[in-house]
Amino acid sequence: MHIWAVGQPGAPPKGTSDSDLLLWIEQAGCLLVTRNRASMPVHLQAHLDAGHHVPGILIISRPLSLGRLLDELHLIWGASLPGEFQDQIVYLPLR
After folding, report:
1. Long-range contacts made by residues 33-41, C-beta under 8 angstroms, separation at least 24?
2. Which of 43, 49, 53, 79 could be disulfide-bonded to 18 (CB atoms 3.0-4.6 Å)?
3. Closest CA to 93 of 72, 74, 67, 66
4. End-to-end CA distance of the chain
């Protein structure tokens, strides 16, 4: 599992627009984990309508401890199939 954070070397800079983040995850082949449940679904729909795709978006839908979030991500990483989340939004926690 590789984790990139916005603002780190090799990742988009802080302040990158949702539209540009979606283009980056499409190119990089990364799932996006975000708390942005307000505008990300709208931007994803526009991205898909433009003929683009994303590996998937995981939206943290309620407060989670860092430990619980890491458990969720580890479960997804270990149990999911390639392409399982393509062009989808999945809300965390899963259970």
Report:
1. 33/58, 33/60, 33/69, 33/73, 33/92, 34/58, 34/59, 34/60, 35/59, 35/60, 37/61, 37/91, 40/89, 41/89
2. 43
3. 72
4. 21
- What distance in Å separates the CA atoms of residue 45 and residue 47, rounded to the nearest whole number? 5
Cβ(37)–Cβ(61) below 8 Å: yes
Pick the closest to residue 12 from 53, 1, 26 (CA basis). 26
Q: Residue 62's pLDDT band (boundaries 50, 70, 90)?
A: confident
pLDDT of residue 46: 98
In whole angstroms, what is the distance from residue 53 CA to residue 15 CA? 22
